[in-house]
Amino acid sequence: MEGRDAYLPFFNILPLESMSNSNVELQLKTLPSSPGVYQYFDKNGKILYVGKAKNLKKRVTSYFTKNNDSHRIRVMVKKIHEIRHIVVSSETDALLLENNLIKKHQPRFNVMLKDDKTYPWICIKNERFPRVFPTRKLVKDGSEYYGPYTSFKTVNTLLELIKGLYQLRTCNYDLSEEKIRNGKYKVCLEYHLGNCLGPCEAYESEAEYLKKIEAIRQIVKGNFKDSLQQFRKQMKEHAENMEFEEAQKIKTKIEVLENYQAKSTVVNPKINNVDVFSIVSDEGYGYVNFLQLSHGAIIRSHTIEMKKKLNESDRELLELGITEIRQRFNSHTREIYVPFKVDVGEQIKVTVPKLGDKKQIVELSTRNAKYFRQERFKQMKIVDPDRHVNRIMAQMKQDLRLTEEPRHIECFDNSNIQGSNPVAACVVFRNGKPSKKDYRKFNIKTVEGPNDFASMEEVVFRRYRRLLDEGESLPQLIIVDGGKGQLSSAVKALDVLGIRGKVAIIGIAKRLEEIFYPGDSIPLYLDKKSETLKIIQHLRNEAHRFGITFHRNKRSSTALNTELENIAGIGEKTVVELLKNFRSLKRVKEASEESLAGVIGNARARIIYEHYHPQK
């Protein structure tokens, strides 16, 4: 407890419950569109309902956007004070987790799944000459259990497949070596029918029998490629013999097996009575997720938010979070799974899984922590936009290794086609959002031909010379759309102006989203999902859009003006009048002589009309 007390003054731990404040509408806006399980709670924190969803956002929102015919559902919706959810990998996992949570909590508004029945498993019994059979109960006697399965149809198909391929005993005799040697048992009808090879009378050796059991293990694990090939062979033989009903039966079995999922993350008998913890963090907060597993199944998920005060490490945050959560939920498990080593005392075994089922359950916990962080960001953006902006600015400062927060960012992009009509664009973001009134566009004046480097140097120089002349504030960050070449050209302009070092400048290359710094040949790679990279990409895309639009308009205007001005006797003012009234070159071409004369007079109207209608 000494370690915990030492850290407590530096953290603000915010449980999931504190963020709801009955604001169901806010929670609905931030739900993920992933498979998972949702839970409804009333104002006293009592669970009302547990449900599963292929898409959490759509399913949960449907309760609040449609008129429910059921009186039970209408009453429940009125009582909902808080929505919690657990994200899983698949719809099947959501179905299994829903079953676990309903059995555990017995919610008032759940009608189905409240009995003591569970989904079926396939058991390979821990005995000499093991039996293989379906069961709903897991007995801790060393037997192997595979599943659970959401459909008994899948279980029966697998067992029929196994029965068709391998002769196994179905009796529950104790086939010890001594009893078989003493002739205690006699073969039964199953032996005479060919369904069993008679291990009870030593007609089959234990070694041969165990080879079949190993093959069956591969089938129930989902490795049944050879078995499927044999099924397809049987189906083909039935079809050739005109036995279409039998062929259809085997085809149905093949389809069921091909859709079969052998593994489940949320229910796994190999993982029993452990606590799973993970953490994701940003510049100001850490998010610790907790999954509680009992008897191989997830029975609880919870995430807390922890505010940093002294730039604590993920390990320090996770150690505090583990202590806090275990005390809150009165957990006494002796083993925890975590993504990296932590010190939580000698009485708790700390496991850092490297692969397999244990690794998957830690990854599931991490995924839930990430979703929680995303939802907090979305909620903060709605409820407290200033705090959201402050966090993003602090995160950008840290990610880009800046000396101050980039509240004012400017991004440059060039646009030309083989050197024709070269232009450039500068877009401005303030507090992470576009400030369109500050956008600027440039006609390239000093560069001839397609030279992006020289064009970049010109527009950067012109932009900041003007800001300096007018006494305007400089940005905290300049972004150049391009790699090392464009970045070097922009830096030259800053050198000439004497402001290099006063303003941070970076370049972003499109192909791999590499971030380049002046004088550093090794690029920086940001997390593809990070807020910092998203804002930089937004800046780059906005500069490209703004520049392309300007370039396209200029090119179109040039093309129009050139065609009309090439007509002898027609000048620039006449062209402007025509386009102002007819809006396009096409309409000018199609206009009658009278219409043209009404705008530019008879003499010039006749010149233009005869130019486009020489035969008439």
UniProtKB/TrEMBL annotation:
Q: Name the domain of life.
A: Bacteria
- Main location, first listed in the record: cytoplasm
Instruction: Specify the GIY-YIG domain's residue ranges.
Output: 33-111
In terms of PROSITE patterns, this protein maps to:
GIY_YIG, UVR, UVRC
The record ties this protein, via Pfam families, to: GIY-YIG (PF01541), HHH_5 (PF14520), UVR (PF02151), UvrC_RNaseH (PF22920), UvrC_RNaseH_dom (PF08459)
Q: Where in this chain does the record put each UvrC family homology region profile domain?
A: 290-494
**A GO term (biological process) for this protein?**
SOS response
Q: Where is the protein found, in the record's own terms?
A: Cytoplasm
Instruction: List residues of the UVR domain.
Output: 225-260
Assigned GO CC terms: cytoplasm; excinuclease repair complex
InterPro entries membership:
GIY-YIG_endonuc, GIY-YIG_endonuc_sf, GIY-YIG_UvrC_Cho, RuvA_2-like, UVR_dom, UVR_dom_sf, UvrABC_protein_C, UvrC
The GO terms this record gives for MF are: DNA binding; excinuclease ABC activity
**Per UniProt, which keywords does this protein have?**
Cytoplasm, DNA damage, DNA excision, DNA repair, Excision nuclease, SOS response
Q: Does the keyword Iron-sulfur apply?
A: no
Under NCBIfam families, the record lists: uvrC
Protein task: The UvrABC repair system catalyzes the recognition and processing of DNA lesions. UvrC both incises the 5' and 3' sides of the lesion. The N-terminal half is responsible for the 3' incision and the C-terminal half is responsible for the 5' incision.
Q: Which family does it belong to?
A: Belongs to the UvrC family.
Q: How does it assemble?
A: Interacts with UvrB in an incision complex.
Q: What is this protein called?
A: UvrABC system protein C
This protein's species is Salinimicrobium catena
* Name of the gene this protein is made from: uvrC
